[in-house]
UniProtKB/TrEMBL annotation:
Residues 9-45 form the Tudor-knot domain. This is Tudor-knot domain-containing protein. InterPro entries: Chromo-like_dom_sf, Tudor-knot. Gene3D superfamilies: 2.30.30.140. It comes from the Eukaryota.
C-alpha cells in the first residue's frame, strides 16, 4: 500500500459500476483537487 492512498497499484478491488459490484484492479492512483482518484480496470472487460 502506498502512503496516502487506500489502494495500491496492482491491488484487486471491488468497484461499483452503476448499482452492480465488479472485480477490478487498481492501475494507478493520484491526488486531484485534494481527493484521491483511482484508474481501475474491470476484470474481464476489454481494455
Amino acid at each position: 500500500m502506498v502512503l496516502g492512498f487506500r489502494f495500491a497499484r496492482g491491488e484487486k478491488v471491488l468497484c461499483y459500476h452503476g448499482p452492480l459490484l465488479h472485480h477490478a484492479i487498481c492501475l494507478r492512483a493520484k491526488i486531484e483537487n485534494n481527493r484521491d482518484e483511482y484508474f481501475i480496470h474491470y476484470t474481464g472487460w476489454s481494455p
